[in-house]
């Protein structure tokens, strides 16, 4: 068993800690703070762009990102498949469309709907695509979201998909964290910043209003409200003929919700919403006359017991009138969990995680019958990552992709660490599939191999991780090795085809390790719940255990071992860096949380207290303080030269976290690198050129810290 984490200094809540000498860096756009950012950027870019790896890596990765033979991801809206495309000529992107018949062609004939580069140039704005809400079944009216620089806050404008023009005098909202949902062509539900008192403490809307075309927003009528302490509110309109309903959601915290609904067309609301009687940590969904219920905790209904992680189905009408009968579509085991699902008219497509790789199950209830669902396993490639998207449109009376109840169509994709993605048109009738698109190889995977290993964490838990070995590598302790981890918010890391890591890291002789830490969703709700709040340290213990296991197996040694993570993963690597700096020689800490005393006061931070705890509660601060990197970093410790990256336009995780941590470490005398993109939002970059630059900086840093490149890799190139 790996040795346990060494003791961490106890840090009780002291009001003096609230006096932060670097708090001025939280003023995102202040000239003083931006001058500090520019100074750090100049220094870091000078160091890293001078590395021999930088220029060729940037060029190669930009070529991959801009490649014309990428698989265009699509969303069906009526007769059209829509796609957002970015390349070297369209940095902001083209919103475009084609038909399924057109998409089948090797080079589809795309019709441009909106050119974001032309729009940004005409309006002198740095627009980034934020998505579109489109009203079916006509699919003419769209509400387009545009973000400045990639922020979560967006400007919303009505767009006509026939004339392909913005609608003069149409629905429009100024920049805010807004949600807009069509009721009909003349009316929408809107949640936005209506003024004082209309937002939650997390910065999201807490009020839903009904807004009619041609009237001022101030005249919109309130139909649903949450509390200021909630995360936010939401609304969904189901217009399926014969099953119309409107669902309002009050998000109490990140994992608990109150769900209210009205039945009947949203165009003619007569009744007040009625509370849906389900556990507040369950996730309900309606599919025609069926209620689906995904459980985060155990549920007992009469004599029936359902385990956390199950997916249940029940007759929606019977449930709403008080009957409590349900059956399981999926029941978890020690190694199998529900990764997700999608639905056609008569089928439920289950993505099942099996020891952190995905399988597909198909469940069917015969049309017109109220009997049980019948399920079977679908023959798909394994082990790897699946993507499933149903093509059924419930608003179409005659849907050519779902007119046969036994042969409804869906898109299926597959990829793994060394296999480029393939996209198939599949049918529920059988397991034969039509290959629509196949991504080309972006790196030479010949001789590479993948294995799944398990490390033993401090409390004895077996923690899985994947190792992608480069060609010719041996367990001799000398391999440059990078561990990527996240470990939070139920997010699972499954195998994926990472062209950037493959080309810039593994093809050059680096070992890539993907850590499946507690706090994630790899083994269902219990795996996540094992590492939240007072147990968050378990995520960090798991990563430490994997690092020690890699060293014990001879894969690498500390001089060649690095860690990388973003957002919650940035907190992960920041915490592990200050706890066990002896294990690593590189830390890539991306868009991180680091100041856990003030995280809940910064931007969306209050919405994450169900994951981390409330720092204003002395009992919670007692355990948070033990791992908060900003409070645990010490002048008398020796840390690897860390690279912090963030974005000025990140309005989810405040850039002040990375800024202040870097400033504190510099004041303590530590050497480090810091890069802050002025665009990009929480994703760190707004277009492919920015993404390639950022990635090239990171890989140049990793080779600087963990290299030199093995001679075998150099000889193979």
Question: What this model shows, in words?
Answer:
With 717 residues, this protein is of the alpha+beta class. It is 20% helix and 32% strand. It is built from 15 helices and 39 strands. A hairpin with a 6-residue loop joins strand 5 (127-134) and strand 6. The protein starts with 30 loop residues before the first helix and ends with a helix. 49% of the residues are buried. Mean pLDDT is 94; it is low at 1-17 and 710-717.
Structure in a nutshell:
The chain is built from 15 helices and 39 strands.
Helix and strand arrangement:
Elements: H1 31-49, H2 54-66, E1 75-77, E2 80-85, E3 94-98, H3 100-104, E4 111-115, H4 116-123, E5 127-134, E6 141-148, E7 154-160, E8 165-166, E9 172-176, E10 179-184, E11 187-191, E12 207-212, E13 221-225, E14 232-238, E15 245-251, E16 257-263, E17 274-275, E18 283-287, E19 290-294, E20 299-301, E21 304-306, E22 311-315, H5 316-320, E23 327-330, E24 336-343, E25 347-354, E26 357-364, E27 374-378, E28 385-390, E29 409-416, E30 419-427, E31 430-438, E32 449-456, E33 462-469, E34 481-484, H6 499-506, E35 511-515, H7 525-529, H8 537-552, E36 561-566, H9 568-579, E37 586-590, H10 609-612, H11 618-624, H12 629-632, E38 642-647, H13 656-667, E39 672-677, H14 688-706, H15 711-716
Parallel strand pairs: 34-35, 34-36, 36-37, 37-38, 38-39
Antiparallel strand pairs: 1-2, 2-3, 3-4, 5-6, 6-7, 7-8, 7-9, 10-11, 11-12, 12-13, 14-15, 15-16, 16-17, 18-19, 19-22, 20-21, 22-23, 24-25, 25-26, 26-27, 28-29, 29-30, 30-31, 32-33, 33-35
